[in-house]
Design goal:
Length: 247
C-alpha cells in the first residue's frame, strides 16, 4: 500500500477517535447538569410534600380550635336549657343546640378529611424520600464516572494530537493534508473503504477504472461522488464451521 495512503487511513482513525473523545468532553457538562436537575427536582418534591404536611397540620389546629369553641357553646346552651321558663325559650334554645350539633358534625367531618389528607401526604413523603435517595445514589455514582471519563477523554485528545502531528509530518505529499481537511470539513470523514465497486460510506458505485485503481492501493484515489479518499481491504472469508467430533 502507498505509505501516504496508509498514513491517511491512520489519520482518519485518529481523527475519528479524537472526535469521539471531544464529543464526550463537550457533552459532560450537559450530563452533569441533567443529574443536578434530577437531584434538584427530587429535593424540591420532598420539600413540597413536607410543606404540604405542615400546612395540613396548621389547618388541623384551626379545625380543632373551631371544634372546641362550638363544643363549648353547645355545652353552654345545654346548661341554659335547664334554666328556661317558657316553651318559646325552650324551642329557641333547642334550636341553638341543634345548630351547634350540626356545626360539631361539620367540624368532625373536616377532621376526618384532614386525616385522610395527612395519610396521602405521608405516603407522598415516603415516595419522595425514596426518589431522593435513588437520585442521590444515581448522581453520586454517575457524576464521578462522568468526571473521570472527561479526564480520560482529555488524555485521548492530547494523545491524538501528538499522533496526528507525527503522521502529518511523515507525509511525503504535504498537499494531502489540505485535501484531507477539505473533505473532512464537508463530509465529516475524509477516508473511506471501497468494497464491491462501491464507496462504503456514500454507497455510490465507482467506475470500473476507478475501482481497479483503488484495488491497487498504490495511489490516492477519490470517490467520484463524495470525494473521500478510497482504499481497499479484501473482506475476510468467514471460517467454515468445524465438523462435529466423530462419535
Amino acid at each position: 500500500m502507498l505509505p501516504d495512503l496508509e498514513r491517511l487511513i491512520r489519520l482518519q482513525e485518529i481523527e475519528s477517535k479524537a472526535a469521539v473523545a471531544a464529543k464526550a468532553i463537550a457533552e459532560a457538562p450537559g450530563r452533569i447538569a441533567a443529574l443536578d436537575a434530577l437531584l434538584h427536582d427530587a429535593t424540591a418534591a420532598l420539600e413540597a410534600a413536607k410543606h404540604a404536611l405542615a400546612d395540613s397540620k396548621t389547618r388541623r389546629s384551626l379545625i380543632d380550635k373551631d371544634l372546641a369553641a362550638v363544643q363549648q357553646r353547645q355545652a353552654k346552651y345545654k346548661d341554659q336549657l335547664m334554666q328556661v321558663k317558657t316553651n318559646e325559650e325552650f324551642r329557641a334554645m333547642q334550636h341553638q343546640i341543634d345548630a351547634a350539633a350540626t356545626e360539631v358534625g361539620a367540624q368532625e367531618e373536616k377532621i376526618l378529611l384532614n386525616m385522610m389528607e395527612v395519610d396521602e401526604i405521608n405516603a407522598t413523603i415516603k415516595k419522595a424520600e425514596a426518589a431522593l435517595k435513588a437520585a442521590q445514589a444515581k448522581v453520586g455514582t454517575e457524576r464521578g464516572g462522568i468526571e473521570q471519563d472527561v479526564i480520560v477523554q482529555q488524555a485521548v485528545v492530547i494523545e491524538c494530537a501528538t499522533a496526528r502531528a507525527s503522521l502529518i509530518g511523515g507525509l511525503n505529499d504535504k498537499g494531502l493534508v489540505d485535501t484531507f481537511a477539505r473533505i473532512a470539513k464537508v463530509r465529516g470523514t475524509a477516508v473511506a473503504r471501497a468494497e464491491g465497486e462501491r464507496c462504503t460510506v456514500c454507497q455510490v458505485r465507482l467506475r470500473p477504472a476507478v475501482f481497479v485503481n483503488v484495488l491497487k492501493n498504490d495511489q490516492i484515489v477519490q470517490c467520484d461522488s463524495c470525494n473521500r479518499i478510497l482504499y481497499f481491504i479484501a473482506p475476510q472469508v468467514p471460517k467454515a464451521p468445524e465438523a462435529p467430533p466423530a462419535p
